[in-house]
Amino acid sequence: MSIVTDASSPAAPEIADATPGDGLREGAFGNATGLACRECGHQVALGPHYACPECFGPLEVAYAFPAVTREQIEAGPRNIWRYKALLPVPDDIEQSRNMEPGFTRLLKADNLGRELGIDHLWVKDDSTNPTNSFKDRVVACALSAAVEFHSKVFACPSTGNLANAVAAAGARAGIRTVVFIPSNLEKPKQVNSAVYTDSLVAVNGNYDDVNRLASEIAGEEEGWAFVNVNVRPFYAEGSKTLGYEIAEQLGWRLPDQIVIPVASGSQLTKVHKAFQELISLGLVEDKPYRVFGAQATGCSPVSVAYKAGTDAIRPVKPDTIAKSLAIGNPADGIYVLDICRETGGAVEDITDDEVRAGILLLARHEGIFTETAGGTTIGVLKKLVDTGQLDPTLDTVVINTGMGLKTLDAISDQVGPAATIEPSYAAFTGSGVL
Ligand SMILES: *Cc1c(COP(=O)(O)O)cnc(C)c1O
Ligand SMILES: [Zn+2]
Q: What is the pLDDT, as a whole number, of residue 354?
């Protein structure tokens, strides 16, 4: 089993019942009732815990949802807090110094659909979040938890976008931030963190090394909230809002197929969880849908396991331009396999050249400049159609999780001026551009 910790990190302290832990204010986590182990079901109280004290399985937020109506949600703000009843956040979340990510556009992508041969295609465009990636959603939920835990430091190990989101949200909340990245990260992603924090730490190693270091620091230091380590259960819930929004923006119905990029696998897992919650709350009609995962071949441990028909995910050393997806040992990879297999989807991977082509496909057909992660997702969408794994007659949503200005290097030698000319009409007509 793949879990979120390793043998050297501390287990969550054992707590017998599932009432809110000491020192937490009433209603601090909304309708959440506790943390439940995804593997054995053991429950612990709400707190900065992430690993099951019984079996080391990952902990997940459990809820007792009240009746929630479409009208209540629609009356909410045009950001993720419209779904606050379904998140582990307090009812007064909108009064806090948090970010307001989400409710990003769902674009009908007819040009790209025509190009790929898909009848009904939508792009969920998360590049317009406050720091230009889907990570603002998860960080907003993690920040709420960190504040309720009276954390002194808001921190993360990151493949880039997470560091941007943590640094910005911490600045707005007035909490000290420390963000850790692999030292070979793209320069724009480094700058996009360093503008918000004076504590960007570049680590000589890959993401999995950075993650191990973060677990060690989380075990040694008091009062640190590592968004994707010790407050990971709260962080992960933020990805559900992508699923809620897609369903609401489709007119309160689920798509038939959805293609989602996979790094740790958290996002894919939580979009599925969101769809299941909407069904069980009666907010959408129950119907089958297929979930597809997208990876770059240079870091494709989940796709490799999917194709081999096994549950055993073998960790890899990443080597791809899709750095925001470069997690060689994905914590939720096993659950991605389960979901993609159970729903009749698949996990697929593409080469770096196909990633670059994916970036151009989306830019030239829909006017959306995505980063390498989005290039991966679009490229995989194309491959799924070309190989007959995705049904082009069904309603299909693809998620664009990031912004192309952060990974300019990936594409900058493939595009540029069609001609460089003197400022005269004759020079223009002679340039061959027309
Ligand atoms: C982090 C990230 C992902 C994937 O996130 P996981 O939940 O770890 O699978 C996808 N796209 C972008 C741009 C990201 O930054
Ligand atoms: Zn357990």
A: 98
